[in-house]
Specification:
Distance between the termini: 16 Å
Strand content: 5-15%
Number of helices: 7
Radius of gyration: 16 Å
Strand order of the largest sheet: 2-1-3-5-4
Number of strands: 5
Largest sheet: 5 strands, antiparallel
Helix content: 40-55%
Order of helices and strands: HHHHEEEHHEEH
Length: 141
């Protein structure tokens, strides 16, 4: 259902190719953004952190992993979570200390454990080998 919803949004977008719009929308999901900011080890873990109320967007708690982040949104961890040393050490800092590069459309502040969306992702930002035209072809039926 969620994928079909994102496909509908991508088709209705006024500019761009539907396949690229779809990939951009999927990349902008909060669970994926949290994963890309290196604040979660896996996307599943990012989803769990969001549903448990550990993530804030622009200072407000968000409980939906499918929340779409926009340009200039600030994604951070709840202040109560920042007080839990064991959680930070085992979950957040585990991936922050690995030399994984944050995508160009995001900005990471390691010290404060928060990130900012600089711009919407484009096709060149997405390194996964996906043939989006086949997805559009399938869902257009």
């Amino acid at each position: 259902k969620q994928f079909r919803r994102f496909f509908g949004i991508a088709i209705k977008a006024r500019e761009g190719v539907p396949g690229e719009n779809l990939l951009s929308l999927l990349e902008r999901r909060l669970d994926n953004t949290l994963y890309r900011l290196k604040l979660a080890t896996t996307r599943t873990q990012a989803r769990q952190m969001i549903t448990h109320g550990h993530v804030m967007v622009n200072g407000r708690k968000v409980y939906s992993p499918s929340f779409l982040v926009c340009v200039d949104n600030e994604v951070s961890l709840d202040p109560k979570v920042l007080e839990k040393a064991a959680f930070l050490e085992q979950v957040v800092d585990k991936r922050l200390n690995i030399g994984i590069k944050v995508p160009e459309w995001l900005e990471l502040n390691k010290k404060d454990r928060k990130g900012k969306v600089l711009r919407n992702p484009v096709r060149t930002d997405i390194q996964v080998p996906i043939e989006e035209h086949l997805i559009v072809e399938l869902y257009s039926k």
